[in-house]
Structure to design on (616 residues):
């Protein structure tokens, strides 16, 4: 998490009661969100929670059925508001058969950069994303990680105040993801506000000043991770239980009654430990008495993972 | 398996409204364009555009042409009345496609009353070989007008034929025939006759010496050019759909230029289409001798 920089107290983005329905399904059901200038916010939530829809609405690509969005006081489809926003779609939104430099020049011009300023803007972008030596290569010949960096660079050419990133590291390996994180951290340190949707908690923890957790079209909570942990867990700790075999129905009922939640794996359950580590032996005894074949029982300080489970009711794969 | 694939393709098409619209609209647009190009002289509401020239201005010629323009399907070009146009005008009008066919009641041939094949026929048709059906149709309407407006001339020619080839009429018989023919002329309006070939009164002439093949080449050049313009537009539309799928459209539309900033694929494709059209016309001009500059000037 960034500590070397303090976001401005001045609000850059305010979302109030954002609602958008597709047929009978509400992709957004009254979402509220705010962002300060220079602040980085990670938007978390399970698939279908409304993250991308909210991002598209902020980018002015989707009209709300109800609610308001203001970027520096302007609606997102206002010309001046668009000047403040850079949008980085989840897909590689570049022309694969064109060279990197040509892509950036065209997209920069379309983003409103003057013909005179384009060479410098492209040069700067290539420099900070570390791809100056690949400027003449066709985009399709670059690695996935390089394409993602160019994808991000293309969203910053007009020097926006707010960069919207839809899962910027999806499909990348660890090393490529780290390279993207360095790029985003550099932009953050230069004062560029960012909202990034992600399923990767490490990404949110490394980059974001605050996280917002969405589920069922609403923002369940938005705050710093320590604040969310304190609010949701107090002095409790997280317990990870690994069983030797999937639990029988009776044991399953017992686990639920003991505030354990199932994960994607039948044998793996998450729970909360009240009253400190000294309570762990008693928990283990109770589990064994209920017929559980305990393979592993671990305690850890709650973090973003626990916050996510608490707020969404779902256990993430990451 | 095959059914499942077909069903999948159909469902994908159904859910891609842009592609569905293209799939349904493009064939109709192609049909309309080609119908316009190739069917200028067809259809049940045919209007035959005729450039009419009367170099003689005799009672017979005026009567014939008045009967002709009274036919609903005959449309004198530029609202011209007989006598207004020259032979050169008619040639140009046909060559440019403004008229489907040209008709001249010529002063340098036999008259309508005395056409015996000793000199040029009294009626001259300027024919665009690619629309020869128009000349055939005009010939039929002319024949009808001729028997309608000038029945005495028609029957008189038959009578003369009988008199010279089969039997000789006495002066009294000739006088009776002449009197009868005069009566026919007087009550001719609105009546029709048939059974006599009219073709001897006509001479057909291809305009500007262009061959039918050459005219066809000119038409095909135009048709193919339109087709490629449509292909280019379709290509541009597909490029936009590709950009939409890749997220490029979202990126650009979110920028200050909005959706209007995304004109590249369409404009490039149209430019490409214009280049293709230029090449087609250049080949038609240089390889086949189609008068492309002249047609554009016209």
């Amino acid at each position: 998490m960034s500590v070397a920089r303090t976001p401005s107290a001045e609000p850059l983005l305010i979302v109030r009661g954002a609602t958008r329905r597709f047929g009978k399904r509400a992709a957004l059901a009254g979402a509220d969100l705010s962002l300060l200038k220079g602040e980085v916010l990670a938007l978390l939530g399970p698939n279908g929670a409304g993250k991308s829809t909210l991002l598209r609405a902020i980018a002015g690509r989707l009209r709300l059925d109800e609610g308001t969005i203001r970027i520096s006081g302007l609606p997102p489809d206002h010309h001046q508001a668009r000047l403040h926003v850079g949008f980085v779609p989840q897909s590689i939104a570049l022309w694969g058969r064109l060279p990197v430099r040509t892509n950036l020049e065209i997209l920069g011009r379309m983003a409103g950069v003057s013909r005179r300023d384009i060479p410098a803007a492209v040069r700067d972008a290539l420099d900070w994303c570390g791809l100056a030596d690949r400027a003449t290569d066709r985009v399709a010949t670059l690695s996935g990680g390089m394409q993602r960096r160019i994808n991000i660079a293309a969203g910053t050419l007009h020097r926006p105040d707010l960069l919207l990133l839809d899962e910027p590291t999806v499909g990348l390996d660890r090393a490529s993801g780290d390279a993207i994180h360095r790029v985003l951290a550099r932009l953050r340190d230069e004062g560029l506000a960012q909202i990034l949707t992600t399923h990767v908690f490490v990404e949110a923890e490394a980059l974001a000043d605050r996280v917002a957790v969405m589920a069922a079209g609403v923002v369940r909570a938005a705050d710093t991770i320590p604040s969310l942990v304190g609010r949701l867990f107090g002095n409790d700790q997280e317990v990870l239980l690994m069983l030797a075999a999937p639990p029988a129905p009776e044991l399953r009922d017992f686990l639920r009654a003991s505030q354990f939640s199932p994960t994607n794996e039948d044998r793996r359950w998450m729970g909360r430990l009240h009253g400190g580590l000294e309570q762990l032996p008693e928990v283990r005894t109770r589990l064994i008495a209920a017929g559980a074949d305990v393979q592993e029982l671990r305690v850890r300080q709650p973090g973003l993972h626990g916050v996510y489970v608490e707020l969404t009711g779902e256990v993430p794969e990451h | 398996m095959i059914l499942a694939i077909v069903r999948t393709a159909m469902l994908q098409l159904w859910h891609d409204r842009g592609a569905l619209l293209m799939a349904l609209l493009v064939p109709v647009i192609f049909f309309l364009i080609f119908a316009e190009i190739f069917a200028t002289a067809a259809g049940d509401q045919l209007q035959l555009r005729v450039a009419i020239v009367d170099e003689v201005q005799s009672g017979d010629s005026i009567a014939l042409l008045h009967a002709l323009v009274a036919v609903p399907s005959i449309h004198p070009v530029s609202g011209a009345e007989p006598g207004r146009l020259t032979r050169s005008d008619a040639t140009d009008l046909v060559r440019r496609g403004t008229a489907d066919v040209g008709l001249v009641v010529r002063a340098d041939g036999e008259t309508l009353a005395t056409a015996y094949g000793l000199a040029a026929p009294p009626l001259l048709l300027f024919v665009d070989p690619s629309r020869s059906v128009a000349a055939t149709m005009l010939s039929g309407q002319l024949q009808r007008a001729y028997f309608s407006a000038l029945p005495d001339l028609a029957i008189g020619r038959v009578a003369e034929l009988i008199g010279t080839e089969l039997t000789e009429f006495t002066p009294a018989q000739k006088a009776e025939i002449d009197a009868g023919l005069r009566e026919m002329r007087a009550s001719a309006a609105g009546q029709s006759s048939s059974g006599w070939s009219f073709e001897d009164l006509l001479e057909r002439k291809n305009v500007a010496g262009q061959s039918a093949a050459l005219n066809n080449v000119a038409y095909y050049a135009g048709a193919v050019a339109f087709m490629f313009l449509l292909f280019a537009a379709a290509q541009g539309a597909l490029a936009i759909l590709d950009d939409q799928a890749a997220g490029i459209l979202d990126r650009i539309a979110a920028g200050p230029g909005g959706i209007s900033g995304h004109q590249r694929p369409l404009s490039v494709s149209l430019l490409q289409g214009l280049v293709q059209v230029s090449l087609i016309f250049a080949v038609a001009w240089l390889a086949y001798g189609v008068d492309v500059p002249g047609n554009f000037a016209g």
Strands of chain B lie at 48-54, 74-76, 101-105, 123-127, 202-206. The mean pLDDT of chain B is 75. Residues 212-246 of chain B form the longest helix (35 residues). Chain B has eleven helices and five strands.
